[in-house]
Task: inverse folding
């Protein structure tokens, strides 16, 4: 692609960001708060050392969740069920992982495998329903989210609850020491700050693996060609039904990792207040980052930054929910601008091509 | 004649068998809640939001725009409904809720029609946006109001009247009680007849004017879409936009109208949840009903009365879950026997693996039924959602989608 077009395509998220901030400023003005002051406070709080560690920790599950969604998006498959998948997987992994103790790397690897497998199996149901029963994956995954929530509530109180504990809320037994992922603070000399989750490494590996999978393998090629032109893909010999199942299972497999950052790094058990909503946030990050491993990384960091820095707002008498609006505005505006830019680029390419033909 | 009935049963066995089984199971004392007028009454109340969302989906998808954002528009309906209801009164709340939904429908239309954003992407974005906006509005509007929190609004003021039809359902005339025809039939406990009377009674007694208003939208949509010129234009845009354009139809305008009406109906669905139900806005109270509405639209094969039936089914599942967890337990044996019928059918068709799987599940449900007296609360909670999946897996093969559904249309481009 030509440099001019490349710049154009990068301008979309920036323009969307400015518009979103502009809109949020208007809203802040409307409710009688000073927008510039508000954003200054948020920024100042967000770049403190403590905040930065927290932002990175928050961005890990967001990033993995975005990747899980993006695998499906690449072929035009909408896995809205990452939410349910990672929660189911986290519960099972937390319970199984707490039942034994071996050396740390093997223990953690084992937990990861359990999580990925259970999540992939849960996602496979949606794939099966789409291929065999023709149910659109958006409906089936949403319904599976609710079913999963019910099953988790039942499992947590009746099956996986810590035996003999006098803690009044249901929770799984704590992971043994060998199942806890060591923090990275010593590595980066961050002694006086809170734990930087070791799962950061896994997130980076997942990002690289995702890149390799989508852009360097046959499966990835099949995914992309199906996403770009399903009819052409079919004629090139791709079996769409098989691919739907494979994509759904792969997406679900990534989803299984979403909950592990908080689980292995901080919670060490599955409780009622285990973080939810990461699956839906992942959709937003995937759309923002255009399914690109690097773009989604930036998107995850941005959303994590907004989440963290808005925590200070309540102390300054500004409702911190403005952050949710801001995220949602960014998302909606960015999808509109990507489409505008995409059309612009296609037009330019056609123009350039026709010029070549003329000369 | 008999041959006709026979073929009708064969074709519709998926609907008829479970229905008969439910009726038979309901004869047992502990499962009698399955078919009382009380259950049907609340089934109707719970079906209305799903039906309205389904009709919303219909208006949007008939013009070729997929609307996954129904859920978000419904969320806007719940919040604006609660805000309007608190500030001005119940009916005003309904109207303001509709406006809130319509506003988000308009946003979806701008994104998908004017900017040709992928319909599902835009819908997903709408859902996320609506959740954020509702939370924010709730925080800033009810900051200093008693009984409100960041996730709940204060109670609405005023209420919507209810009525009971005189003579048929024992409604009063000039404060004097009248004869309750269907009520007395229901109390006779005759198989089938009493159950049917209970069903009718659910429609006739204690029914809110808002419910009547909502039910009236079903024939109204049918007339608008299939019997008016503008309805024809809207449908043509979903089937063949290029052709419509050449005949002078304003394709963009039709899509805008369809999607905005869709938003308004979803907004009404949300407002109904608040004004006709809880009386307050609660975060997450839509509970996926927008998506269930979409499912009822698919089940109803894009027909208003089909949507009514589909949403009735899901509303029934929802009502059981709320009113009588005990009765849900009776459904286990229904599922088990129904699966056994499937076993016989697949054996007859010589699909042995399928019948083996059905047999296994049938046995599993039977064992579950025999070894328990209730279903855990947590399972009861997702009855409507699992019903949705089961119903769609049996009903989804014969749908006629609008030809150009989900295809972005741009003037001057062939597609």
Result:
């Amino acid at each position: 692609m030509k440099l001019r077009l490349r710049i154009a395509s990068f301008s979309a998220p920036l323009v969307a960001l400015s518009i979103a901030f502009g809109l949020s400023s208007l809203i802040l003005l409307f409710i009688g708060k000073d927008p510039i002051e508000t954003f200054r406070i948020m920024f100042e709080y967000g770049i403190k050392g403590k905040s930065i560690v927290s932002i990175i920790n928050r961005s890990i599950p967001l990033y993995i969740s975005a990747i899980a969604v993006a695998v499906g998006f690449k072929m035009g498959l909408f896995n809205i069920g990452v939410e349910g998948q990672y929660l189911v997987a986290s519960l099972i992994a937390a319970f199984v992982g707490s039942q034994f103790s071996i050396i740390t790397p093997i223990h953690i690897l084992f937990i990861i495998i359990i999580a990925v497998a259970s999540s992939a199996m849960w996602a496979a149901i949606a794939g099966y329903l789409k291929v065999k029963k023709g149910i659109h994956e958006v409906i089936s995954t949403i319904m599976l989210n609710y079913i999963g929530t019910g099953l988790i509530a039942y499992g947590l109180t009746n099956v996986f609850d810590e035996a003999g504990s006098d803690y009044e809320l249901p929770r799984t037994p704590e992971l043994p020491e060998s199942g806890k992922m060591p923090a990275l603070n010593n590595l980066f000399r961050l002694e006086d700050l809170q734990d930087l989750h070791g799962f950061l490494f896994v997130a980076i590996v997942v990002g690289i693996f995702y890149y390799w999978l989508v852009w360097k393998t046959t499966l990835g090629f099949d995914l992309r060609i199906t996403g770009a032109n399903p009819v052409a893909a079919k004629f090139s010999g791709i079996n769409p039904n098989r691919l739907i199942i494979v994509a759904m299972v792969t997406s679900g497999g990534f989803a299984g990792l979403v909950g592990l950052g908080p689980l292995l790094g901080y919670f060490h058990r599955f409780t009622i207040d285990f973080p939810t909503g990461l699956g839906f946030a992942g959709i937003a990050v995937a759309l923002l980052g255009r399914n690109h491993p690097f773009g989604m990384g930036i998107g995850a960091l941005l959303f994590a930054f907004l989440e963290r820095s808005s925590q200070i707002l309540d102390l300054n008498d500004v409702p911190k929910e403005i952050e949710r609006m801001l995220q949602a505005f960014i998302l909606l505006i960015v999808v509109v601008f990507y489409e505008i830019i995409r059309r612009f680029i296609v037009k330019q390419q056609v123009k350039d091509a026709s010029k070549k033909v003329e000369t | 004649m008999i041959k006709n009935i026979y073929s009708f049963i064969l074709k519709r066995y998926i609907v008829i068998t479970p229905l008969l089984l439910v009726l038979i199971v309901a004869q047992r004392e502990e499962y009698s809640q399955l078919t009382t007028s009380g259950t049907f009454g609340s089934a109707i109340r719970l079906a209305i939001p799903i039906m309205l969302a389904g009709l919303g989906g219909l208006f949007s998808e008939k013009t070729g725009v997929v609307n996954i954002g129904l859920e978000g528009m419904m969320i806007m309906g719940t919040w604006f409904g609660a805000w309007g209801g608190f500030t001005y009164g119940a009916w005003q709340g309904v109207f303001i809720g509709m406006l809130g939904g319509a506003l988000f429908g308009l946003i979806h239309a701008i994104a998908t029609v004017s900017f040709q954003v992928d319909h599902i992407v835009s819908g997903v974005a709408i859902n996320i946006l609506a959740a954020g906006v509702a939370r924010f509005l709730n925080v800033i509007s009810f900051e200093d109001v008693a009984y409100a929190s960041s996730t709940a609004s204060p109670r609405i003021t005023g209420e919507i009247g209810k009525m009971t039809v005189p003579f048929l359902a024992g409604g009063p005339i000039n404060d004097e009680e009248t004869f309750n025809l269907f009520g007395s039939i229901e109390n006779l406990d005759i198989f089938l007849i009493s159950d049917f009377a209970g069903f009718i009674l659910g429609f006739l007694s204690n029914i809110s004017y808002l419910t009547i208003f909502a039910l009236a939208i079903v024939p109204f949509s049918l007339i608008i879409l299939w019997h008016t010129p503008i309805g024809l234009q809207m449908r043509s845009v979903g089937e063949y936009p290029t052709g419509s354009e050449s005949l002078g139809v304003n394709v963009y305008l039709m899509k805008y109208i369809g999607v905005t009406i869709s938003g308004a109906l979803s907004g009404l669905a949300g407002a109904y949840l608040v004004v006709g139900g809880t009386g307050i806005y609660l975060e997450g109270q839509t509970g996926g009903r927008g998506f269930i509405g979409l499912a009822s639209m698919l089940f109803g094969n894009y027909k208003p009365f089909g949507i009514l039936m589909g949403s009735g089914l899901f509303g029934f599942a929802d009502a059981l879950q709320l009113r009588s967890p005990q009765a849900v337990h009776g459904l286990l044996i229904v599922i088990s026997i129904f699966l056994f019928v499937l076993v016989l059918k697949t054996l007859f068709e010589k699909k042995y693996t399928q019948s083996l799987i059905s047999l296994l599940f049938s046995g599993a449900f039977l064992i579950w039924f025999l070894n328990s007296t209730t279903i855990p609360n947590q399972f009861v909670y997702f009855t409507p959602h699992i019903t949705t999946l089961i119903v769609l897996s049996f009903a989804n093969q014969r749908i006629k989608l609008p030809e150009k559904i989900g295809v972005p249309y741009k003037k001057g481009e062939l597609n």
